Fold this protein.
Amino acid sequence: MRSSYKILYQGGTGEVTEKKSRFIACTRPVKTEEEALAFIEEMRKTYWDARHHCYAWVIGKKGEHKRCSDDGEPAQTAGRPILDVLEGEGVVGACVVVTRYFGGTLLGTGGLVRAYSGAAQEGLKSSVVLTVEPGETFSLTADYNGIGKIQYMLAQEGITVLGSGYTDKVELTILVPQEKAGKIQTEIADITGGQAEVVKLEDVYYGVVEKEVLLFPEE
């Protein structure tokens, strides 16, 4: 059984200030270590006059690849707290860079951990985090007598129709949540007396952003 996961779909920027030190968190979706390193370098150039650019990234559906850096801050006070925020939220496919402009006052280890964690949290708040669910797509072919009942049932179950075609019969392509796949096939057979043809196309992952359904092919 495949599991859902959360990805950073759209990056953002958040900021906290602690005793005049500014902590600016920038987030970006990344799929590879190369993309993460390029983003970190981009932030170094954007905030070229800052003292520290601490970061963490988590890549892979299960967070298989991760890394963090304190970039000159005391050990475990910057990169690890940023990574803890990502792991705590369960977000993968994400890189967070927190840039610090020193305000003249030392914060101590506890203060640094709170500041970097807080900045990372603000960065995620300004981002779009998407829950990606396992699903299956099906081709459904039925005659005009049965299609009305099918469409009503699909609407009641919240099933997304990805496409449709009308010839001597009606052909629909539907997206079904993994846990509903068996139920939907049984209901289609019941309401059409077994006359509708249902063929599984592929396993996919999907997410919904502002009512738009996005498909993520099985990797």
In short: The helical segments are 33-46, 79-89, 108-125, 144-157, 181-191.
